[in-house]
Amino acid sequence: MADTARHDHTSRQLRMLSQALDSGRLGPVRRLVNTLSPAEIGHLLESLPPGKREVVWGLVDAEDDGEVLLHVGDEVREALIADMDPDELVAAVGDLDIDDLADLVEDLPDQVIDEVLKSMDRENRERLEQVLSYPEDSAGRLMNPDVVTVRADVSVDVVLRYLRLRGELPEHTDHLYVVSRRHQYLGRVSLAALLTHEPGMPINELIDDEQPAIPVEMSADQVANQFSDRDWLSAPVVDGNNILLGRITIDDVVDIIRDQADHQTLASAGLDEEEDLFSPVPRAARRRALWLGINLATAFLASWVIGLFQATLEQVVALAVLMPIVASMGGIAGTQTLTLMVRGLALGQVGFGNMRALLTKEMLVGALNGLVWAVVVGSLAALWFSDLRIGLVIAAAMSINLMVAALAGVAIPLLLRRLAIDPALAGGVVLTTVTDVIGFLAFLGLGTALLLS
Amino acid sequence: MADTARHDHTSRQLRMLSQALDSGRLGPVRRLVNTLSPAEIGHLLESLPPGKREVVWGLVDAEDDGEVLLHVGDEVREALIADMDPDELVAAVGDLDIDDLADLVEDLPDQVIDEVLKSMDRENRERLEQVLSYPEDSAGRLMNPDVVTVRADVSVDVVLRYLRLRGELPEHTDHLYVVSRRHQYLGRVSLAALLTHEPGMPINELIDDEQPAIPVEMSADQVANQFSDRDWLSAPVVDGNNILLGRITIDDVVDIIRDQADHQTLASAGLDEEEDLFSPVPRAARRRALWLGINLATAFLASWVIGLFQATLEQVVALAVLMPIVASMGGIAGTQTLTLMVRGLALGQVGFGNMRALLTKEMLVGALNGLVWAVVVGSLAALWFSDLRIGLVIAAAMSINLMVAALAGVAIPLLLRRLAIDPALAGGVVLTTVTDVIGFLAFLGLGTALLLS
Fold first, then answer.
1. Does A6 have pLDDT greater than 70?
2. End-of-domain residue from the set B87, B104, B138
3. Residue of chain B whose Cα is closest to the Cα of A53
4. Does any CB of chain B come closer than 8 Å to the CB of residue A158?
5. What is the DSSP code (8-state) at residue A202?
6. Considering the domain boundaries, does residue B331 fall inside one?
7. Between the N and C ends of chain A, which has fewer C-beta atoms within 10 Å?
8. Which of A171, A182, A284, A295 is nearest to A234 (CA)?
9. Membrane-spanning regions, if any (chains A, B) (predicted)?
């Protein structure tokens, strides 16, 4: 539901394109591709299998090449760059904004970087070096140093004359920043305020000094949260001495938010958000093998627990038939609690302040559902194997496992975070290990005690 | 990683607040709460257990009440509204923008709606009715009818005089819209252009007519995709006759993007994104019971498959010990493919145009990993039970199940979408049912054939 519309639209384009490519008619493909925005071309390239991908990449207008490279995942970007010769690359990235160029620079061949640096004027070269000096995923890397500043002691008409002289403003400029002589950030003036006030009005009466500046070292995730919690369209970036360094705009923040979401979804399956949909098979297989290996270890642990009860299983084969039910219900219930917790942690809504209340609630939910499903599963199992004791065993094991699942669902993400391990990545594996082990242990243990006596 | 910073910051606040609340000192709580933005207060209220939540809600500045209600999930909103008397509610929502009021109106008691409508002037009442006439999750519901329009045949100085006379512009205005006499949308003029051009410049030379208008019936998800693919900050909304109806701004779009992400994460665990972290226990239990019930049915199906092989299990108990490994590895591998597919579908990157190439790639990855892990698991099992034939059986079953998992991971989301079922919600359940059933069937079937002869 969440995405049917886009799907329908894009999948139609994809099919048309695919047919045109198959038939070898490149004219219509070129026309179709160049009606798209760079982000859309990026999406399209990501969705094409190698072979077709290179053909379409060759048809993209040269002037869009740089922007398109910004809008694809790391793996696809590498492949596209490998497909271009140095001159093309220099031309493609030469016109990018400083912050965008900084994004790409590490993926470029040295020779291309040298050429690009040589073609820049000194001011821009210094700006690029400054942006690159900040860690990846920090505000410093997100900011564009190209900002329009004014002084507080002039009037609106002075600013208007200056702007008319200056001509075009940097893209997505909604405010001018007011700075001191030492370039310290004092506040901002909206373009709207400049337009709606009389020419004689002094700037210092129009200053909005409520907008806090972002420290250059703030993490990209925190920047994104501030933007979305406070409905900002842009924000100034300053260093430790409150010197204005640049500005971050909402369009870059939207990309971060999308990446965060991608990470949450993909990490739970042990996948990397930069992975190419059409990675070469050996590379994709190798990467996924790691995740399968971890899960194999946990599966063997569960098998080892079952192995402890071989004597029981030989005598009561019904336990072998029913045991996956107890483990799987525990896994499902625990995953529900875990998912709520991981989201709560990501939103900063879960912490030591409300942990006990949450645990109580989740345990009660687990107990209630444990009881309900224990009765249902117990009755069904007793009927199936015509043995009331089997029903009692599975009912008791189920109740225990659902309570454990609730406890594990709350505790595991908190523990993982303590250990600085990403709960979105590792939470599911650890949780299902617990619910499998406890599920088999409780069920087969109770079975041994009750049925073999 | 993705969220540590926010977590640390907010969880500190949460703890401070919790302590202050426990000690009953409400002064510091009030001061702390009212330094937050409405969205942050919303997050905070969502994170508080009932009891504390009502206390903090009572401390929020009355003027922020309306905005806070906009920033909480449906369930929490209901609870907060139930906590206010009608006069408070009328005061809280009376000052909201039309699009925001439309968001809330269905949750308000009739008496309050009447009061609010009575207090509005005729123009705003008509605008509200118009916005409400569009379906939820459409562009019509997202738009704010409050836009500033100009004619094409005037010059910059006429517009400047008009704006100075008008005073303040609606929040987040970055463009004025140019309309015909019949109010048809012709294009837009950026505030930046008005500021950087000479007063004598005619508006029709500044018009940007490249920005397409959004049809009022476009789905909210599609609107969000357009904004993020094309780096828009705002966009005009028109009806079928190209009459300008309003404008959508990026801050509302950011909320949609966050909701989409939430949906993807929570749906896979059968959870609703509007659910309150502190739902009353019976309500939370009832809702989750449905999901557990569905999974119970699939677990019984898997048990039934195992039950077909009771005779085998009685004779070779090692099969009972090892069988969960085959099923669980299939589930893990299949979930990886499924997760990539669901994301690809959401981004419009997967469709009938590239389905075959994707299927081939995923099947090859499955085959390669099937082979590798078959050897590993086969050797380990053969050693454990000192029986080469058991090793062979599990190796063969594992290879089969990983191939089936790849096929199912590609096919299930495409089929579900064909049936208009949300793959993010149902994909996981259907997939693990397939990998469980095929895993047990292949392993126990091969075991029966090879070991009982």
1. no
2. B138
3. B354
4. no
5. B
6. yes
7. C
8. A171
9. 289-311, 317-342, 363-384, 390-416, 428-452
Residue B253 maps to a domain: no
Residue pLDDT, tens place only, A68-95: 999 998 899 999 998 888 888 888 888 8
Residues A33-50: what's their mean pLDDT? Answer: 89
Contact list, B229 vs chain A (CB under 8 Å): 37, 39-40, 43
- How many CA atoms, within 13 angstroms, populate the side-chain half-sphere of residue A232? 25
Model pLDDT for residues A199-212, shown as the tens digit of each residue: 999 999 999 988 88
CB neighbour burial string for A76-95, b if at least 16 within 10 angstroms, e if fewer: bbebbbeebeeeebbbbbee
The secondary structure element, H or E, covering residue A249 is strand A244-249
Q: How many domains does chain A have?
A: 3
The pLDDT tens digits of the residues spanning A329-354 come to 999 999 999 999 998 888 888 877 78
A164 contacts B354? CB cut-off 8 A: no
Q: Alpha carbon of B45 to those of A225, A433, B60, B77, B277: distances in Å?
A: 17, 34, 10, 10, 10
Quote the minimal CA–CA distance from A58 to chain B in Å.
Answer: 19
Phi, psi torsion values for A39, nearest 5 degrees: -65, -40
| CA of B427 vs chain A CAs: smallest distance (Å) | 13
Q: Indicate whether B128 and B48 sit together in one domain.
A: yes
Sign of the CA dihedral with B95 first, then B98, B104, and B107 last? positive
Choose the final residue of a domain: A192, A227, A249.
A249
Residue given tokens 């070269």 in the structure block: A125
Contact A11 B353 (CB under 8 A): yes
CATH number at A375 reads 1.10.357.20
Read off the pLDDT band of A406 (50, 70, 90).
Answer: very high
Chain B environment of A313 (Cβ under 8 Å): 313, 317, 320-321
Residues B181 and B134 in one domain: no
> Scanning every residue of chain A, which has its alpha carbon at the shortest distance from the alpha carbon of B274?
A340
Residue A272 domain-assigned (yes or no): no
pLDDT at A293: 94
Which one has a higher pLDDT value, B431 or B98?
Answer: B431
Share of chain A above pLDDT 90, in %: 59
Please name the residues in contact with A149: beta carbons below 8 A apart, sequence gap of 6 or more: A176, A177, A178, A179, A183, A244
CATH of the domain at B219: 3.10.580.10
One domain, residues B288 and B428: yes
- What is the average pLDDT value for chain A, to the nearest integer? 90
Complex confidence, ipTM:
0.87
Q: A20 is in which domain, residue-wise?
A: 4-133
Residue A258 in any domain: the answer is no
pLDDT at B299 over 90: yes
Question: Which A-chain residues 323-382 have CB contacts (< 8 A) with chain B?
Answer: 324-325, 327-329, 332-333, 335-336, 338-340, 342-354, 357-358, 361, 364-365, 368-369, 372-373, 376-377, 380
B15-42, pLDDT tens digit by residue? 777 778 878 788 888 888 888 889 889 9
Q: What share of chain B is helix, strand, coil (3-state, %, to 5)?
A: 70, 10, 25
What is the helix (H) or strand (E) element at residue B284, kind and residue range?
helix B281-307
* Backbone torsions φ then ψ of B308, nearest 5 degrees: -65, -20
**CB contact A250 to B (< 8 Å):** yes
Q: Please name the residue of chain B whose CA is at the shortest distance from the CA of residue A284.
A: B365
- Whether residues A49 and B2 touch (CB distance < 8 A) is answered with no
The sheet with strand B149-150 has its strands ordered as B149-150, B175-179, B185-190
- Where residue A69 sits, what CATH number does that domain have? 1.25.60.10
- Minimum Cα–Cα distance from A303: chain B residue: B321
Angle at A275 between CA A269 and CA A279, to 5 degrees: 115
Q: pLDDT-based confidence at B366, cuts 50/70/90?
A: very high
Q: What is the pLDDT of residue B85?
A: 87
Residue A163 is classified by DSSP as H
pLDDT at B2 over 70: no
